């Protein structure tokens, strides 16, 4: 079982999103709400399986329901595996995502680091901006590190 506070927060969030908070839905949602980073369906299944018996199809079906109702983000990645992150746990509803074009890693990014003024943006566009979810593409820290050591091996003595 997730921590009692996490389970309780999940129950409240799911209810508010219009989803009946069954035990399995709470378990699947909590696996994401707890996580710093988006997880693949496989990773979510493994997290839930650590404490509970649940079948794979049930997890996949719940992920579809949560994504379709806007409780979680479903993020397509270059490696072909969708990743999921919560919109009401560790990360707020509005946040952005960094995609590594080398390894396919996807990371959640706090919009505060993007220095965006949503009110100013809305005024400039004459639109009301309720949510900002930008896609950032680039090379993640570990791929950049790997590229640096490859470089170092090719140029010994430098
Ligand atoms: Zn990478
Ligand atoms: Zn995210």
Automatic annotation (TrEMBL):
Q: Which GO terms describe its molecular function?
A: DNA-binding transcription factor activity; transcription cis-regulatory region binding; zinc ion binding
Kindly list the cofactors needed. Answer: Zn(2+)
Q: What keywords appear on the UniProt entry? A: DNA-binding, Metal-binding, Repressor, Transcription, Transcription regulation, Zinc
Q: How is the cofactor bound?
A: Binds 1 zinc ion per subunit.
* Signal peptide annotation: none
For this protein, the parts annotated as crossing the membrane are: none
Q: Which Pfam families match?
A: FUR (PF01475)
Q: Keyword 4Fe-4S on this protein?
A: no
What family name appears in the similarity comment? Belongs to the Fur family.
Entry's Gene Ontology BP terms: negative regulation of DNA-templated transcription; regulation of secondary metabolite biosynthetic process
Which residues are noted in the entry as Zn(2+)-binding? 100, 103, 140, 143
Q: What is the name of this protein?
A: Transcriptional repressor
Gene3D superfamilies cross-referenced by the UniProt entry: 3.30.1490.190, Winged helix-like DNA-binding domain superfamily/Winged helix DNA-binding domain
UniProt-listed InterPro entries = FUR (IPR002481), Fur_C (IPR043135), WH-like_DNA-bd_sf (IPR036388), WH_DNA-bd_sf (IPR036390)
């Amino acid at each position: 079982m997730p921590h009692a506070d996490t389970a309780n927060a999940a129950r409240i969030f799911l209810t508010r999103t219009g989803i009946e908070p069954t035990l399995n839905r709470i378990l699947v949602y909590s696996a994401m709400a707890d996580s710093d980073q988006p997880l693949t369906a496989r990773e979510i299944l493994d997290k839930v399986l650590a404490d509970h018996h649940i079948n794979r199809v049930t997890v996949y079906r719940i992920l579809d329901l949560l994504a379709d109702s806007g409780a979680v983000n479903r993020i397509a990645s270059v490696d072909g595996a969708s990743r999921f992150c919560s919109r009401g746990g560790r990360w707020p509803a509005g946040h952005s995502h960094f995609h590594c074009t080398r390894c396919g890693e996807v990371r959640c990014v706090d919009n505060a680091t993007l220095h965006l003024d949503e009110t100013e943006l809305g005024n400039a566009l004459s639109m009301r901006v309720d949510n900002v979810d930008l896609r950032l593409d680039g090379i993640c820290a570990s791929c950049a590190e790997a590229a640096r050591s490859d470089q170092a091996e090719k140029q010994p003595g430098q």
